[in-house]
Every structure is written in C-alpha cells, then in structure tokens.
Amino acid sequence: MTGFAALPLRQRALFVLLLVGSAWTGFSFTAHIAGQPSAVGMWLSLIGFVALSLITLFAIGQQKAWAPWAALAVASGMLVIALYGWATRPDAIWPTVTAAVAIAAIGVAFLIGEPASATLTRRQRLFFAIIFLFPAWVAAGGLFLPALIDHFLPFKVPPLHARFIGAMYAAGAVMMLLAATSRAWLAVRVATIILTIWTGVLGIVSLLHVGVFDWSWRPTWFWWFAYIWFPIGAAFIAWNQRHEAGHAEEPPLSPLLRGFLAVQGAVAVALAFGLLLAPQIMLRLWPWSITPLLTQIYSAPFLAYGVGSLYAARQHGWSEVRIPAIATLVLALVAVVTSSMHSGLFSAANPSTWVWFCGLGLAAVGLAAFVAVPRLRSRAPA
Prior knowledge:
mainly alpha; Substrate Binding Domain Of Dnak, Chain:A, Domain 2; 73% helix; globular
C-alpha cells in the first residue's frame, strides 16, 4: 500500500480530523468576517492558519516527526477561532463544531506522541525558544513602557500592576531561555510543569472573564493563541516524558534547600488559591489597589511557582532545580525593585505592605544565597 492507506491508523485519523476541521474552520471564519470593516488582521490570521494547516497535512502524510507538534498548533488555532465565534456570535453552531474537532485532534496527537528521551529534542528546545519571545516582549513593555501596556497585553492596567506583570514575565522569559538552551530533560522537568500550570490556569481564568477582551485589538489574538497553545504544548512534553525519571549523578539537595522550597511552595500555593477562589477577600488584603480580574490572573503564576517549588523539593540534585530557582529569584528581586519604585501606593500602616516586602525580600535573599553558594544547596558527601 502507498499514500494515505499506508499511514498508521492514528495518523490517518489525525489527517482526516485536521483536513475536515481546518476546512470547516476556514470557511466558517471567512463567512463570519466577510464584509467586516477593518478586518485586515483577521484575514491575515486566516491566511496564516490555512498555510499552517496545509504544511501540517503534508507533514502527517510524510510521517514527519514534527507532525504532532504542528497538529497541536493548528488545533490551537481552531480553538482560538472557535472562541472568537462564541464571543461575537454566541448563537452560532460553527464554533462548537470547530472546538469539538480541535479537541479530538489534540487527543489523537497525544496518542501519537513521541518517544521519551533523556536529552531534549530540537523540537522541544524550539518550543521553549518560541515561548521565550512572548514573556520577553511583555516584560519589556511592563517594565519599561508601563503606560503603553495595552499594546503588549489585551487590557490596560495602572503602572504598578504593569511593572509587577513585567516582573512575572521577566521570570518566565528567563526560565524559557534557560530551558531552550538546556540539553538534559532533568534540567527542565520542573520548569515544564511550571509552564503547564501557569499558562493553563491563566487560560482558564481568561475564559471566566472572556467578556473583557476586545477582539478588534491584536494583542487579544496573541493572548488567546498563547494561552491555548502553550499549555497544550507543555502538557504534550510532560506527557511524552512521564516515564523519564532519571537523575544526575551529583550530590543531593541539602535539607536546608529542600525545606526552603517546601515552605516557599506552600505559601505560594495558599496565596494562589486565595487569589483564585476568594478574589473579593483578596481585594481587601492586597497591599495596593487591585481588581477581581487581576487577582485571578495573578493566581496563575503564584500557583505555578508554588507547585513547582513543592515539586522541586522532591528532586535529587541542583541541576534539576537550578532553572526554577533562578526564575523565582528573578521574580522576587524584580518585584521588590518595581514595588519600591511605586512606594507611594503602599501604606506602612497596612500589615499587607510588610508581608509583601518582607516575603519577597526573604525569597530573593534566600534564593540568591542558594544560587551563589554551592555548599548551601547541596549536601556534603558522607
């Protein structure tokens, strides 16, 4: 047998799902935006989606190793377009069909997967490198152009919030840059979990507030594609690598570092759940003025770094926790600096102010010590 009939069953299923799904999505989206004024960006997005779909169908037909990755990107694009349909035409049926086909394609791509490996593949490192660009861009805008943050994000926030968001994204950019330049899976194991949780929870939170997004604004499209594709891609890596549990031959982590990571993780997880599940209470406790949307948005990185710290505390050696430790250090240090730049918005009479600065300061000092002093982070040989 040759051609389509020669493909394994799962590849044939993925090919059919993407062929039907991308055609359906393309025609539906075309009909939806036809005649709309100022829809140039949407037409360009559609052209890009069609081109990616054709490339992906070719890759599946040729059984390229990167075909499942391309399929996940196409399915993510389908979900973004479906979300746009739900937001602008809630009575239409095509977004639901589009989403159903996309979810089925994602499931098949996960079933196809790729072999686990102790070393990172070029595809995995490229994925981390692509993600690096997004937080680096947002961090630059938040930290240096806070008044123009709505050109980097799909919503506008005051300067202190813009700079705190910049601090979080600077940490994310550092983490992804270090992951993209790593070679061993064990070096990025914790970072991959942090990435999955951060982007996945942020995508869910965004769904809860979908009405605040302006679909005529380009950052909205970038936002949704990022927070659909990123968690799916990160989960794809974690799924494929789930049985790869090797450790480096190096001294184990010191009890001091394990304890520090465990406490840091527990505090961050507790804070994240408060922000996510009790935003009205956190409005009163937060050390400066905040909105319900931002409380839940902030819950995502705190939950990711919290779970990541707890997971890191269970790892064997420093090479397995180095990347999340450095990224968390960047977050704490930059957050302290940016908060100090807006000290007038904090009240010394508010206990939350002291908790905020002392908590971030202790995290920054502790992590800096572990990064700089090897004997603090590793147990001495017996």
